[in-house]
Write a structure and sequence with these properties.
Layout lengths: L7 H12 L5 E4 L4 H9 L5 E3 L1 H7 L10 H12 L6 E4 L7 H13 L4 E5 L18 H14 L6 E6 L2 H4 L1 H13 L4 E4 L5 H10 L5 E3 L11 H6 L4 E4 L2 H20 L12 H7 L2 H11 L8
Parallel strand pairs: 1-8, 2-3, 3-4, 4-5, 5-6, 7-8
Helix pairs in contact: 5-6, 8-9
């Protein structure tokens, strides 16, 4: 009932233990708190909170328009609704190194287990679009150092995302990743890898966990969990998949409503009321309410 019973510090500790194993952790992207609970119900290991999804939820493009307050607030709503660990996309850290430091502590307070900071120039753009620009190595290093120095819980995961593969090639991506690990990154998110061999090379060259982004319609081929595990990947995310599926279904339903004037033909595609009530634990709320509302209000 209500929110997660596992404290954030304990979520981080347990997440770090699993990340240190040979297990591949699957983090589908939640587009709201309810979908995070569904991800947990279906047996996944974690929840990912995408910057692209958070901006799209506001009707905005993924070009760095969201603020730390908006991202932290929504991330907290999602993270507290599940016992699973939740990782959030913090774009470029919302400013200069001191802003990055504040970002880390704010996200710690919001109950996240970790975040990633990228090396794009502001205003950033989606990692799978052409025309990206990355900052110089010194600036990228300062962002990660600020993040690592700012955290108060040593189990809070500082992940460095590098977009340099799409700008200067694979050799540059490996060199940048190594520099970011030396700066304090606990894990690396190499964006827009094109082949399994590129993921394998990253995993072989680095001594920290690697994240694979399996976003649809992007630069990367959509590899399976087994393929990525064999390539040495530790975490895989599907950041926008659930939102895309939900919006696709919503669009088809609206078309049906326009054409037929009713949604009878779509009932089989809908989440049943009983399933929704089970997911949000209606029964638990009812028991709780019956236990505390045990008095009678009378008029004098």
């Amino acid at each position: 009932m209500l929110y997660s019973t596992t404290p954030a510090a304990e979520k981080r500790r347990l997440f770090r233990e699993r990340l240190a194993s040979d297990e591949l952790l699957r983090f589908p992207g939640a587009f709201n708190p309810l979908s995070a609970r569904l991800i947990e119900q279906k047996g996944f290991e974690g929840v990912y909170i995408s910057g692209a999804v958070l901006s799209a939820d506001l009707g905005l493009p993924d070009i760095g328009l969201t603020t730390l307050t908006e991202v932290a607030g929504r991330a907290q709503q999602i993270a507290r609704m599940t016992e699973l660990p939740a990782i959030v996309d913090a774009d470029t850290g919302f400013g200069e190194p001191m802003n990055v430091a504040r970002t880390i502590q704010t996200l710690e307070d919001a109950g996240l287990v970790g975040t990633h900071i990228e090396d794009q120039v502001n205003p950033k753009r989606c990692g799978h679009l052409d025309g990206k620009t990355v900052v110089d190595e010194d600036t990228a290093i300062k962002r990660i150092r600020a993040a690592a120095d700012a955290r108060r819980d040593p189990n809070f995961l500082i992940m460095a995302r590098t977009d340099i593969r799409g700008v200067d090639g694979m050799d540059a991506a490996v060199d940048r990743a190594k520099a970011l690990v030396d700066a304090g990154a606990d894990a690396i998110f190499p964006e827009a890898m094109r082949t399994l061999a590129e993921f394998e090379r990253m995993a072989e060259e680095l001594d920290v966990p690697i994240l694979a982004n399996m976003t649809e319609f992007g630069k990367s081929e959509l590899f399976s969990v087994d393929q990525l595990r064999d390539a040495g990947v530790s975490i895989v995310i599907w950041p926008v998949s659930l939102l895309r599926i939900a919006m696709g279904a919503a669009g088809r339903a609206l078309d049906t409503l326009n054409e037929d004037g009713h949604l009878t033909s779509r009932l089989g595609e809908m989440q049943h009321r009983a399933d929704l009530y089970d997911l949000i634990d209606y029964e638990g709320y009812n028991h709780f309410d019956a236990g505390v509302f045990n008095f009678t209000i009378t008029k004098e």
